[in-house]
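Consortium newsletter contribution from the modelling node. Members have asked for a concrete example of what our holo predictions look like. Here is one, prepared for the zinc ion complex that several groups have been discussing at recent meetings.
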Amino acid sequence: MTDTHCHLDFMEPEEAQAAIAASREFQAILTIGTNPERNRKALAIAQANPHIWAAVGLHPTEANLLSPELEADLQNLALHPRVRAIGETGLDFYWTPETKDAQYLALDFQHRLAQNLGLPLIFHVRSKDGDPAEVEIADWLKQHRPSKFVLHAYGGHLKLLEVGLELGAFFGLAGPLTYKKNTALREAVQQIPLDRLLVETDAPFLPPEPHRGQRNHPALARFTLAKLAEILGISQQEMEKITDQNAQVCFGF
Ligand SMILES: [Zn+2]
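And here is the predicted structure:
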């Protein structure tokens, strides 16, 4: 079992310890940094636990922190052998529409860094009303064509699906796959090749059914895996093997 996207540093130390203990048997967990301080925490957690790896980046809601010093810091952290991806980056028009220009600059920088180091780039995409962030990310992807990337917490947007399929994206599927109302997402997922599917939690956020309303943690990735297996008509065991393998290919665990 693998959780390809969580934020263990968003948990209190006790909660994180319990979460790590509950997922001891996992192949791997990728904990994602979102700003300089959190990148360091993510990396420290990865260094302390053999099955945990880190991604370092600047979240689009933190894009106004971008500076030459921050770029140098990210460049430096990204060289650490426990770091297996750059991000999360992308566009967020829900929380911080006012920093759109900075979000693009931060995205462009993290793309160049990922390309230089041969690391996958992790995308966060969130819109306010309708779909502008997904459409803008799709356009950006067509123009920049990153060699290896993940659409984290993919939500079922069809243009993003089309461009993602064309460019060989990995699609990160999180708790919302299990939510009753997300029929369109479950339909979209059926169009994704098996070797492009990843399971993630985004813990402590986005808990899957039947744990909605509670804090999420990596061990709950099993509920999303079970839903994915059910949608695709594959046994849970086979689905786990496939998604573990995909995570290995993507992140080199
Ligand atoms: Zn995240």
